[in-house]
Predict the structure.
Amino acid sequence: MTTATTTRHAAGVADAVKVYGSGDTAVRALDGVSVGFPAGRFTAIMGPSGSGKSTLMHCAAGLDTLTSGAAFIGDTPLSTLDDRRLTLLRRDRVGFVFQAFNLIPTLTVAENITLPLDLAGAKGSREWIDALVDVVGLRDRLHHRPAELSGGQQQRVAVARAFAGRPDVVFADEPTGNLDSRSGEEVLNLLGRAVRRMDRTVVMVTHDPVAAAHADEVVFLADGRLVDRMESPTADKVLDRMKAFDTKGGRS
Ligand SMILES: Nc1ncnc2c1ncn2[C@@H]1O[C@H](COP(=O)(O)OP(=O)(O)OP(=O)(O)O)[C@@H](O)[C@H]1O
Ligand SMILES: [Mg+2]
């Protein structure tokens, strides 16, 4: 090592290629992407529609497999795991937030939050769940059911659920896509607080420069390739970078 400190990555991919289909209809959704998502940081993935953002997230999270290359959670290469171990790794070390909140309608807020732990037969730490409930601001809604909550509140429950098992990394695909801007802002602040106050790692796919500005760093995809990275993004800087995609196809 030539540097005094090295970055620990909570997840990442190396030389990742993902081809959907075959022959004439084959789509190269990832075309040789190498990227690490640093532990304890909030990373946003941006790029035009169809650039491979969701594919990258799904492959990095072990929800889908690469055609070639490697995906890692921590130091664990996912290709070395059989189905059972992969399922356990996803359950114990990865959290997810989706655009559709995916709460269980018959369960209360409290039950939805602890669902991953209950399924795992794990107790979890009561202090941790308690702290989470405060961070997401749902203490007075714990015994409500999802249908009794606003969209923003439901997504806050989904965020709390994603962090309940203290996963190494939480992946979020367009978590504010179904929310108005004020509720979206609350969810983004929440993800930022989880990273900065609770030392979590978040990787978020978004179309929205304002959402991306909540991250510590933005990585840009175009045509299945990593084309840029931006530290300390602002909405204006991200918007300017996105405009370049329209004029020169994103390759810089
Ligand atoms: N299951 C699939 N079968 C075939 N092609 C697919 C499949 N999933 C994605 N693709 C293709 O792979 C490419 C990348 O898709 P992906 O969903 O990763 O893009 P994205 O950047 O998330 O786009 P969006 O911003 O619209 O969500 C696209 O051309 C898409 O049509
Ligand atoms: Mg997508």
